[in-house]
Amino acid sequence: MPPKVKRALAKSTKVVTKQPVNDQLQATLDWLKKTGAKRVRDGMARFAIPADKAFGITVGALRQYAKKLGPNHELALALWESGWYEARMLATFVAEPALVTPALMDRWCREFDDWAICDTACFHLFDRTAHAWSKLEPWSRRSKEFEKRAAFALHWSLSTHDKSAADAQFLMGLKLIERAADDERNFVKKAVNMALRAIGKRNPVLHDAAVATARRLAESTNATSRWVGKDALRELTSAVVTKRLAAKRLAK
What we know:
This protein has helices at residues 3-11, 21-35, 38-43, 59-69, 73-82, 85-94, 102-110, 115-124, 132-140, 145-161, 167-180, 186-200, 204-218, 223-236, 239-251. The protein has 252 residues and is an all-alpha fold. Helix 2 packs across helix 5 and helix 5 (73-82) runs antiparallel to helix 6 (85-94). The longest helix has 17 residues, at 145-161. The N and C termini lie far apart (45 Å).
């Protein structure tokens, strides 16, 4: 972590959480502005992240600052409304899942304008809400690239994090994946591919179903569907994955 960021983190305190939300917001924005670095901002383009409203702060530094802020849903809402890239990242880290409503999820989803905010919201906030599963099907029908990506980034995340979910939920997800696999937009097809791979690595039953889905896609006449299927098959039929799942089969 750059020395500048370390010094800024060391000086920051949780006192902002005791202030009115507008003061908390301003204090946080002041920290972001002070901590931002042109080097980081310039490098965002390499990862296809817009930098026109960014300060230039690494995700690691934002995570550390979020820990100092602690859970703060009111501040999260204000940070999101500011529109700054790093402020929205912080919003996903400090928002409280129990207070996230379906309407809020839909509104934030409509405002996703890059893959990083989309994926971070799905992996660090939305997948911990009570409404996550209900958003997969409707979001998978969205027309805008990052809104549609959200459906599959969220499914990818649930495949990894929701240990209690039933296989039937993921089997339904495979249908959504197969339906969307022909979307040639880069950030949609990659999320579809990752969701397929994640489901297939969850357990032997889902592995068999995911491999069958991937094989159908690999034989498709559509070039994008073929890429999704073939790329997923490379991992799902790899020695590492098959060996791990074989051990799970024997353990039953």
